[in-house]
Amino acid sequence: MQVPPVFIDVSPEDQAQELRIYLKSLGAEISEEKSVKGIEDDLHKIIGVCEACFKDGQEPEVEMVLNDIVSIMVLIPLDRSENIILAFCQKLIKAQSQKLGLVCLRALWLLFQSLDDHSPMRYHVYYHLILIAEKTDQVKSIFQDMEHLKQQFALCPPSSEQLQILYRLLHQVLLKSNQSEQAAKVMIELLGTYTDKNASHAREDAIKCIVSALADPNTFLLDPLLSLKPVKFLEGELIHDLLNIFVSENLTTYLKFYQEHKEFVTSQGLNHEQNMQKMRLLSFMQLAETNPEIGFDIIERELQIKPEEVEAFIIEVLKTKLVRARMDQAAKKVYVSSTMHRTFGRAQWQQLRDLLHSWKSNVSLVQEGMKSITAAQLELLNQQ
Question: What contacts 243, CB < 8 A, 6 or more positions away?
Answer without folding.
Answer: 210, 213, 214, 222, 225, 226, 231
